[in-house]
């Protein structure tokens, strides 16, 4: 398996899976490969992924979960699969490619610093950046991000961007060994686990975890996360307060 492995969780993505973009990324980035995790889809996602894997058998792996377990479990399964296969860098990307795959080399560049362990994509609306978010989602996202930052006690701007890349070391893979206890906010729980590593003296989060402002990001239609999930997300944030404290005591 090549050096850089991106895990792509998929649930009923047949209508919007942009396979030409994935093909282009494979052509343009020789060190890149993908692990697609079909999270119990009920549409033609599996058939599409199997066909794509048949085109690129050395660089595309498809893992199928028997039933829908949620994005957190799909990502966890894919990360552990890639780590066991010997990937050097491993991360996860949303299947809708809201973050374009052309951003992957910039994440890899940040990880060229041997001290950096984790790179988080960050949707910061700056001059010269093409960040397209619907206003309602932007403002709800900012409220969530502020709450997450306060809960973690960490100056992180954007926990929820679906583009992250890290070193596939035993230390970082350790963060994925246990199932996540929250479904929608698992990115926050991931950071809580990394903060637990910091409490044990294994990592310096503020120095070794880096937020990378994205050059481009676009809200895509068909997101599984909408206003109906807001009560669940609020409930998970309440639960995460205890989870953060527990991770620091582990």
Short description:
The protein is an alpha/beta fold and 250 residues long.
What's the total number of strands? 9
How many structural domains? 1
What would you report as the Rg, rounded to the nearest angstrom?
17 Å
SS element count, helices:
9
Helix content: 40-55%
Low-confidence stretches: none
Order of helices and strands: EHEHEHEHEEHEHHHEEH
Strand content: 15-25%
Distance between the amino and carboxyl termini? 33 Å
The CATH class assignment is Alpha Beta
Average pLDDT over all residues: 94
Shape: globular
- Side-by-side strand order of the widest sheet: 3-2-1-4-7-5-8
Which CATH architecture would you pick? Answer: Alpha-Beta Complex
Category by helix and strand content: alpha/beta
Q: What do we call the CATH homologous superfamily?
A: Spore Coat Polysaccharide Biosynthesis Protein SpsA, Chain A
Largest sheet: 7 strands, mixed
At CATH level 3, the topology is Spore Coat Polysaccharide Biosynthesis Protein SpsA, Chain A
């Amino acid at each position: 398996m090549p050096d850089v492995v991106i895990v792509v969780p998929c649930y009923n993505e047949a209508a919007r899976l942009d396979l030409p973009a994935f093909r282009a990324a494979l052509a343009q980035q020789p060190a890149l490969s993908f692990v697609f995790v079909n999270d119990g889809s009920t549409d033609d996602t599996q058939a599409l992924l199997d066909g794509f894997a048949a085109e690129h058998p050395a660089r595309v792996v498809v893992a199928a979960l028997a039933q829908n377990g949620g994005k957190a479990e799909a990502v966890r399964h894919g990360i552990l699969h890639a780590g066991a296969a010997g990937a050097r860098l491993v991360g996860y990307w949303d299947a809708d490619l809201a973050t374009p795959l052309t951003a992957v080399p910039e994440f890899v560049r940040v990880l060229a610093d041997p001290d950096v362990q984790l790179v988080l994509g960050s949707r910061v609306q700056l001059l010269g950046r093409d960040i397209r978010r619907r206003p309602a989602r932007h403002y709800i996202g900012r409220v969530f991000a502020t709450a997450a930052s306060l809960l973690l006690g960490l100056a992180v701007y954007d926990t929820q961007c679906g583009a992250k890349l890290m070193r596939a070391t035993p230390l970082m893979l350790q963060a994925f060994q246990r199932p996540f206890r929250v479904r929608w906010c698992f990115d926050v729980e991931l950071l809580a686990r990394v903060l637990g590593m910091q409490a044990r003296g294994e990592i310096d989060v503020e120095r070794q975890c880096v937020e990378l402002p994205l050059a481009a990001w676009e809200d895509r239609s068909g997101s599984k996360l909408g206003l109906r999930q807001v009560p669940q997300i609020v409930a998970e944030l309440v639960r995460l307060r205890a989870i953060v404290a527990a991770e620091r005591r582990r």
